[in-house]
UniProtKB/TrEMBL annotation:
Coiled coil: none annotated. PANTHER family: E3 UBIQUITIN-PROTEIN LIGASE CCNB1IP1. Pfam families: ThiF (PF00899). One of its GO terms (biological process) is reciprocal meiotic recombination. One of its GO terms (cellular component) is synaptonemal complex. InterPro entries: CCNB1IP1 (IPR042448), ThiF_NAD_FAD-bd (IPR000594), Ubiquitin-activating_enz (IPR035985). This is THIF-type NAD/FAD binding fold domain-containing protein. Residues 22-188 form the THIF-type NAD/FAD binding fold domain. GO terms for molecular function: ubiquitin protein ligase activity; ubiquitin-like modifier activating enzyme activity.
Length: 642
């Protein structure tokens, strides 16, 4: 019978298919976070190459958003195939939004995907936002036309949803997040131990009665029962003893808490095999954290203040619940109980009973708040689950406000340039500012040109202090090389000879020993590899690789080979590129080591120079003092003689 019961209990804890699929993320943001993700309706407005937008959407589809819509009027061309993982030659001439949506949905069939516009329809974002279900977040990629950006920002402001813009060029990117004026965050996922509210200084009658039953005749209890009293019972019992000896006052001052902690520790039995009691040790450790008077969190006080403001919508369920919780606080001088208790040593039956008492009290408080909600304007449509979630997280709810007093861009640049000056003094340990990269990328979306010179001029005219900035010039040179149609994998090889490291644009000599590209073909028959020093003498040990092959060459180079050989060639080619990146990392580490060593030597030389200079100054000062002393002596003698 017991065996059958254990099997049934085991079956009850078998995870569902969904729990197995989303196991890792459920551990990260719990079921409430997953539910919020699954209710999300994302709008992606794509422009330019569109790669970064699709990749971002892919990372939302995999964990399981509810639905998405891709708004993109681009038709797929050859340039798209090299930068977008989801597109192939069969997509040429088709809608990019349609093809990407179809392939994204294949990653997670539980997600619903749509595309806009339909065939032959105009690209009208106002029509899209008016006819679709409300979106919960908007993502758009730069460079999007200003009038379209205005449409999206206007919609986001009306719906009070975040809007995110992202721009990427090669290895560089930036994003801008614009939030509603007031964005409340209810489920902040605090630590479980932090959410525990034991109400030790203000217990309700049912808890007091249960504890008094547990601690009745506590001195006559068996060692087993005494050693399994939960810390809640131990602390409440000791608090009663303390109050009896201190005119009903609880231990609030730090010195009183220390004395109270000693009182709790002295209640433990030492004449047992363990030499103490674990439950009393837990109670002693909990004194400073749980024996504290209630104080309203500043974040919640801010929410209470805003709940009476004219700036917020009176029909928003969050603010209706906030008003109801505020009335609860004014009445009871406490927040609704969260209902959670920490792990503690206790008998299973006692712990379950204690847990049920806290949960029952939490339901009672939430029910009272719900009754208040129903009496407020717009409260009829508020769901019970929303009230319970608010009450459970009341102590940790945050109100994120868009900054109305943000520093100007000029001020930000001044601070970042100051950071660069400090970095120049502090050395390589202090990183340089990235502000020049951001400004260059930002300018590329505002200036209708790919010319590095014009982008630099635009930034310099906007921020004069950046005129002539070297990092800005380097970044824009990189930007102009990339162009709008090239992706992150389109970069030039570098010579693997560490004394060279020049870019190889047209041709490279590739060797079979270590896959080393070098700049020129050696004139002699044999060749020593610059990486591993192997002697290469066979005909196929070296190969001149054309780094800019023609379209005809691309079409025939692998034609006729079996799929297995094609895949093997592709694998080796990818290994080639992996090796090149490893070489680049080694080179950068080598340079870093040289610079670090050089910095250390210069630092030592500077210290030695300063020491020698101080010694020389001291020596010269001594000479000056010695020369001045005889003169002073002769002056004194002359004065005496007179």
């Amino acid at each position: 019978m017991s065996q059958e019961g254990s099997v049934i209990r085991g079956l009850q804890h078998v995870p569902t298919e969904k729990e197995r699929k989303y196991d890792r993320q459920l551990r990260l943001w719990a079921a409430s976070g997953q539910a919020a993700l699954e209710s999300a309706n994302v709008l992606l407005v794509n422009s330019g190459p569109g790669t970064v937008g699709i990749e971002a959407l892919k990372n939302l589809v995999l964990p399981g958003i509810g639905k998405f819509t891709i708004a993109d009027d681009a038709i797929i061309q050859e340039a798209d195939l090299g930068v977008n993982f989801f597109l192939d030659e069969s997509c040429l001439g088709k809608s990019r939004a349609l093809c990407c949506a179809e392939y994204l949905v294949e990653l997670n069939p539980e997600v619903s995907g749509n595309c806009f516009p339909e065939e032959d329809d105009p690209f009208d974002l106002e029509k899209l936002t008016a006819s679709s279900e409300p979106f919960t977040i908007i993502l758009y990629t730069s460079s999007l036309q200003k009038d379209l950006v205005c449409v999206l920002e206007s919609y986001a402001e009306r719906q009070k949803i975040p809007i995110l813009s992202v721009h990427s060029v090669g290895y560089y990117s930036y994003f801008t997040l614009k939030l509603p004026a007031h964005l409340p965050v209810v489920d902040t996922h605090p630590d479980e131990d932090a959410t525990a509210d034991l109400r030790l200084l203000d217990p309700w009658p049912e808890l007091s009665t249960f504890v008094s039953q547990l601690t009745k005749d506590i001195d006559d209890q068996t060692d087993h029962d005494h050693g399994h009293l939960p810390l809640v019972a131990t602390l409440l019992h000791c608090l009663e003893e303390w109050k009896d000896a201190h005119q009903g006052n609880p231990p609030l001052a730090y010195s009183d808490k220390l004395a109270f902690r000693n009182l709790v520790a002295n209640g433990a039995r030492r004449n047992n095999p363990e030499g103490g009691e674990e439950n009393f040790e837990e109670a002693v450790a909990a004194v400073m954290k749980h024996v504290t008077p209630f104080s309203l969190p500043s974040s919640l006080k801010q929410i209470f203040d805003y709940s009476n403001s004219t700036e917020i919508s009176s029909s928003d369920s969050f603010w209706i619940i906030a008003k109801a919780v505020e009335q609860f606080y004014e009445k009871h001088h406490q927040l609704p109980l969260s209902g959670g208790i920490p792990d503690m040593k206790a008998e299973s039956a006692v712990y379950i009973k204690l847990q049920s008492l806290y949960k029952a009290k939490a339901r009672q408080d939430a029910s009272e708040v719900m009754s208040t909600v129903r009496t407020l304007e717009g409260g009829i449509g508020v769901a019970q689950a929303e009230v319970e979630l608010f009450c459970k997280n009341a102590k940790f709810i945050k109100l994120v406000q868009s900054s109305v007093h943000a520093p100007t861009l000029t001020k930000i640049v001044e601070n970042e340039l100051l950071n660069d000056e400090l970095s120049a003094v502090a050395g390589p340990e202090t990183p340089l500012s990235l502000i020049s990269i951001y400004l260059a990328l930002r300018a590329s979306t505002l200036v209708s040109t790919d010319s590095a010179e014009e982008i630099v001029d635009f930034v310099a005219s906007s921020i004069p202090s950046l005129s002539g900035n070297n990092r800005l010039l380097q970044l824009n040179s990189h930007h102009s090389e990339l162009g709008l149609g090239r992706g992150m994998m389109d970069y030039n090889l570098l010579c693997n000879n560490l004394k060279c490291r020049r870019e190889l644009r047209d041709r490279a000599l590739v060797t079979t020993c270590r896959l080393i590209p070098v700049e020129v073909m050696p004139a002699k028959q044999t060749f020593v590899c610059p990486a591993c020093h192997s002697t290469l003498f066979r005909d196929r040990d070296t190969l001149i690789a054309d780094l800019l092959p023609s379209e005809d060459y691309k079409a025939i180079v692998l034609s006729g080979l079996s799929p297995g050989i094609v895949l093997e060639c592709a694998e080796r080619a990818l290994n080639f590129w992996a090796y090149q990146k490893t070489q680049e990392i080694c080179y950068q580490q080598h340079i870093y080591g040289i610079l670090t060593e050089k910095h250390s030597k210069l630092k030592s030389q500077l210290h030695q120079t300063v020491t020698e200079a101080n010694a020389e100054i001291a020596r010269l000062q001594t000479i000056i003092d010695n020369q001045a002393q005889p003169k002073n002596t002769s002056d004194c003698a002359a004065e005496t003689k007179r």
